[in-house]
Specification:
This protein folds into three domains: about 80 residues, Arc Repressor Mutant, subunit A (Orthogonal Bundle); about 110 residues, Beta-Lactamase (2-Layer Sandwich), CATH 3.30.450.40; about 140 residues. Helices cover about 50% and strands about 20% of the residues. It contains eleven helices and eleven strands. The chain has a four-stranded antiparallel beta sheet with strand order 3-11-10-9, covered by helices on one side. A three-stranded antiparallel beta sheet has the order 4-5-6. It has a two-stranded antiparallel ribbon with strand order 1-2. Helix 5 runs parallel beside helix 11.
Length: about 350
C-alpha cells in the first residue's frame, strides 16, 4: 500500500473499532491529512476491498475491516496507548493487599480486569504440581482437546491442547483409562517418566523377538531412525512354516500396537504440560471463539525464575479497542507475575 491507501485503511479501522459502524468515503474526506475528493477515497477503498482488507456489508453502505484487515492493523499499524492512570490505580488496588491465597487473589484480578475493560476476563492460574488422582481427555474438535486433571489435594485443573493427528474421542478415552491405571501418587512429570520407561521396555521386547527373524533373513527393519519403524517380513507364507514363527510374529505385532499406544499417550502428556505464548487471537483464528466472533488479548506472567506459569487476558468483540486493552493486559500480567514471585 502507498501512503494514501495506508492512511485510508488505518482511519477506516480506527473509526470502526470506535463506533462499530461502516465508514463512508464522505466522512473520511474531513479527516485525511491531504485534501482529496470522496471519489478518490472510494477508489482507494475499492482497491482495499479487492485486497481482502475491507468489506462492504451492503451495496450502498460504507466499509468495515475484514478479519484479515484487523490482523494486518494489529500487527503493523496499531498505536498502543500509555496505560490510563485510573486503570492503573484500579488494578494496583486489586493486588495491593496481597492477602489471601493465590486463587483468591487471581479471582480478584479477574474481576478487576473485567471491570476495567468492560469485557470478559481470562486468568490462567499457575500449573499445579501435586500428585494426580484422575485424568480425563475430552475431544472438542478435530484440532482441539481438553484435559481435566484432578489432583490428590482436591485441586481441579483444565488445560487445552492440540491432540496428535488422527486421534478420536474413543482413543482419548483409552488413553485416559491407561493413564489412570498408573497415575496414583504421581505428578504429571513422574507419570511421563513412567510411560517412557514402559516404551523402552516394549522396544527392547520387540528387538529380542525380532532378532532371530532378522538374522535368518526372514525379516528386515524398515524406517530405521524414524519414530514409526517397521518390521518387514519376507514371504511369510512360504518361509515361516512353524507355529512358533507365527506366534512370534503375532507377539511382535501386539507389541508394536502397544508401543504405538504408549507413544500416543506420551504425546498427550507432553502436550498437557505445554503452555501457549503471547498472542492476540482474532475471530476464527481461535477455534474457541470462532462462532461468537470474539477476540482474545492475552499475555503470560512469569515467576521469579522467569518461567511462564500462567496468563491473563480479555475476551471481547473483534472490534476491541486494542490500543487501550493491550497495555491493560500487559500491566496486569506484570502485576500478577510480581505477586507470584513474592509468594515464591
Amino acid at each position: 500500500m502507498n501512503d494514501r491507501s495506508r492512511e485510508v485503511f488505518r482511519r477506516v479501522v480506527e473509526s470502526y473499532l470506535s463506533s462499530g459502524d461502516p465508514v463512508g468515503s464522505r466522512s473520511l474526506t474531513r479527516e485525511m491529512s491531504e485534501k482529496v475528493s470522496a471519489a478518490t477515497i472510494r477508489n482507494v477503498m475499492q482497491d482495499l476491498e479487492f485486497m481482502g482488507l475491507l468489506d462492504s456489508p451492503h451495496v450502498s453502505a460504507g466499509r468495515v475491516p475484514t478479519q484479515i484487515g484487523l490482523r494486518m492493523f494489529v500487527d503493523g499499524l496499531l498505536e498502543v496507548r500509555d496505560l490510563d492512570q485510573n486503570d492503573r490505580q484500579m488494578l494496583d488496588q486489586t493486588v495491593g493487599s496481597n492477602s489471601g491465597d493465590v486463587s483468591g487473589i487471581l479471582n480478584r484480578v479477574s474481576t478487576a480486569l473485567s471491570g476495567v475493560t468492560q469485557g470478559a476476563s481470562l486468568v490462567l492460574a499457575p500449573k499445579h504440581e501435586a500428585p494426580i488422582k484422575h485424568v480425563e481427555f475430552v475431544s472438542l474438535g478435530a484440532d482441539r482437546a481438553l484435559v481435566v486433571l484432578v489432583f490428590a489435594d482436591g485441586h481441579v485443573e483444565n488445560r487445552l491442547f492440540t491432540p496428535p493427528a488422527g486421534q478420536t474421542p474413543s482413543s482419548m478415552r483409552e488413553a485416559a483409562n491407561f493413564v489412570n491405571a498408573l497415575v496414583e501418587g504421581k505428578t504429571l512429570s513422574e507419570l511421563s517418566d513412567t510411560i517412557r520407561q514402559q516404551i523402552d521396555v516394549r522396544r527392547q521386547e520387540i528387538d529380542v523377538l525380532a532378532r532371530d527373524l532378522v538374522e535368518s533373513g526372514l525379516a528386515l527393519w524398515g524406517g530405521d531412525g524414524e519414530r514409526h519403524e517397521r518390521l518387514i517380513v519376507r514371504g511369510r507364507s512360504n518361509l515361516l512354516q512353524s507355529e512358533a514363527g507365527d506366534e512370534d510374529l503375532e507377539r511382535i505385532r501386539n507389541l508394536f500396537d502397544d508401543l504405538e499406544r504408549k507413544r500416543d499417550i506420551a504425546d498427550f502428556l507432553d502436550l498437557t504440560e505445554t503452555g501457549e505464548g503471547v498472542r492476540i487471537f482474532i475471530g476464527s483464528e481461535n477455534k474457541l471463539f470462532s462462532l461468537s466472533g470474539s477476540s482474545l488479548v492475552v499475555s503470560p506472567y512469569m515467576n521469579a525464575d522467569r518461567k511462564i506459569v500462567g496468563a491473563v487476558g480479555v475476551i471481547g468483540p473483534t472490534r476491541l479497542n486494542y490500543g487501550r486493552i493491550v497495555p491493560i493486559v500487559d500491566y496486569t500480567a506484570q502485576l500478577v507475575g510480581r505477586m507470584i514471585s513474592d509468594r515464591g
